Amino acid sequence: MKILALEQIREADRYTIENEPIASTDLMERAANTLFVWLLPRLKKEQSIHIFCGIGNNGGDGLVLARLLVNQGFDVNTNIVWYGPTGSPDFLINLERLREIKYSKVADILAQTVFPAIDSGDLVVDCLFGSGLNKPISGFVSGLVNHINDSGAFVVSVDMPSGLYADKDSGVAHNHIIKADYTLTFEFPKLGMLLPENDAYVGQWEVLPIGIHHEYIRDVQVNNNLITAADAAVRLRNRAKFSHKGTYGHALLLAGSAGKTGAAVLAAKACLRSGVGLLHVHLPSSAALPMQCAVPEAMLSIDTSESDISRLPDIAHYSAIGIGPGMGKSEVTAKVLRLLIQESSRPLVLDADALNLLAENKTWLSFLPARSILTPHPKEFERLAGSWSDSYERLSMQRDFSMRFGVYLVFKGAHTTISTPEGDCWFNSSGNPGMATGGSGDVLTGMITGLLAQGYSSFEAAMLGVYLHGLAGDLAMEKSGMESMIASDIIKNIGKAFTKLID
């Protein structure tokens, strides 16, 4: 699913109005109807509803919604917030339509107005600014924002929480921003919804379709995308009837060190569950027996060192290589990583201590095989690329890193972000906070390595691995809950994740 920049969103509306064709007021009517349909089953007749409308088109959406709710017999208090001398043309048309309805209650809010009382059991619909705001909220409107946030009412924001910018830093530490429980946005997600510092303002969010012209959606060029089930499913390949284990690749994992065999076990299990035909794990000799007992399906390449990976096995016959889980950072292991980078002609999957060693030896980055996949968590990426002041700066750094070194970088976390050598970013839509547990990243490394070994491109392996990993976590959550989830629960649900994606 494409994530449009603010100007592209405006152009999408203009294109639809001109080419459907449809009147702008009718497109506003269509948008408000989707809000109405979403809200209706969630409302109680005795509930008081407060809709706060700015004087732009976001406020116009609120006016149409108010009219629809009043016609259904709901107690709706529509508040017009006059932060300017007049409203947009479509706003004014719908204000007149609302005033003509019997039983509609419309109040004006000006600088000197006492704000209306809001009870904790009420519903507030925020239609003050939407995504069009490009400067901090100030004046009496900032007081209104604080009044709404302090009310304890359930808040639904339309398009974007007022005060929060759609695609640039909002200065959340000091600006006045609506804290929504739910954000309902139209047709496309906004970049700001996907970033951690905005979570307290966005709350849960949902994209509502309003019939933007299909030709515009098809043709518009973006460099941000949201990975949906459909995006992942279309890249998943069917298995041929007469295929065999050799058809699905031979992966090598270099993982484990003294006291960290578990990471290697998790990565190996996940690799096998991801469909690879054959798997070798190269690991210290002390880890051989635990690995063979835990993962009998894996073949072993046993290092001469008891505690560390100290040599690189022959890599000529492997279709994909993953390195890092539980590997440690000993001097001999660092030499193995350097040799692997020098000798591999195929993309590598690098995680955990492989990334930490790269951070300590940054000159090696330029020699990584083209289209390799790096999977850092935030601190690992900071060691690789430096610190950042906000998520927009981090995204810029991530894009630059991928383009500079020709690699895919999987920045792990909520809405895990994949950046490409071409400078695109893909945000994941699956997963949950229960996956914030030790070993979850090792599972992802195994999955991506297994997919890469099967002949998926680096991008396909990263995208499918990230989405299926999150989906398996979602399925695990249904059984274990978030608090009790462990990495092994994710592995147990990889098969179900594949099945769900295929269905």
Highlighted features:
40% helix, 7-stranded parallel beta sheet, 503 residues, 15% strand, alpha/beta, 10-stranded mixed beta sheet, elongated, 18 helices
Structure report:
There is one protein chain. The protein has 503 residues and is of the alpha/beta class. The chain has 18 helices and 17 strands. The strands form two sheets. A ten-stranded mixed β-sheet has the order 8-17-16-15-14-13-12-9-10-11, sandwiched between helices. Strands 3-2-1-4-5-6-7 form a seven-stranded parallel β-sheet, sandwiched between helices. Helix 9 packs across helix 15 (440-453) and helix 15 crosses helix 16. The two termini are 19 Å apart. The model has no long low-confidence stretch (mean pLDDT 97).
Global geometry? elongated
Query: Structural class, from helix and strand content?
Result: alpha/beta
The percent of residues in helical segments reads: 25-40%
Strand order, main sheet: write it out.
Answer: 8-17-16-15-14-13-12-9-10-11
How far apart lie the N and C ends? Answer: 19 Å
Ranges where pLDDT stays below 50 over 5 or more residues in a row are: none
Radius of gyration: 26 Å
